[in-house]
Amino acid sequence: MIPIALFAIVFVVICVLLYRYRVYKQRKDKKVVGKIMTIFIVGILFVACAYSALLLDTHSLMVEVKDAFEGKIPAEITEGTPISRYNIRDRGLGAERDIGETKVSLIRYFTIHNFKDGYIWAFYSNEAYDTNGKSFAGSYRIPTKWKIHKEKGKWEIVEIFEAP
Asked: Does domain 58-162 have CATH number 3.30.230.70?
């Protein structure tokens, strides 16, 4: 999923480029304006690439959280970790039930980290159904903030902040 921040960056770049192009057409010293535009474009591309690296580096953690919501991870693996609050099998809701279908929407809005420690802001919605198709658990549009840490090349959620 592409976060809203990336769309905002692209929108700002397009607006600035259109403005700069108009100024460029009106100026007589086109070489100076052309160099300024080039430096600006390279700077924006650098920021976009750096932010993409932050997103791609934490993608495996997003997949792990989604798998926990869907009950694909056994409760024994997540037991005692912050991610256990998202594991349908570890919350006591799905342990005694046969889990049928789960619908999960996990949207990451912002990520900031130094490739060792950082934070992820996201929204999630989920609904779990038993094998009869009856809903037995769910939550909708829950904002969350995760404190993350990278240990031995693997990102882990250290702490979860959510509204009560």
From this structure: no
Q: Is the dihedral of CA 5, 7, 8, 9 positive or negative?
A: positive
Cα gap 136→89, rounded to integer Å: 12
Q: Count Cβ neighbours within 10 Å for each residue of 17-38 and write b for 16 or more, e otherwise.
A: eeebeeebeeeeeeeebeeebe
pLDDT averaged over 10-residue windows placed end to end, the chain, 164 residues: 64 75 66 74 82 85 90 84 83 62 89 93 89 83 95 93 84
3-state secondary structure at position 89: coil
Q: Where are the alpha helices (DSSP H) in the chain?
A: 4-26, 30-57, 59-69, 75-78
What's the predicted TM-score (pTM) here? 0.73
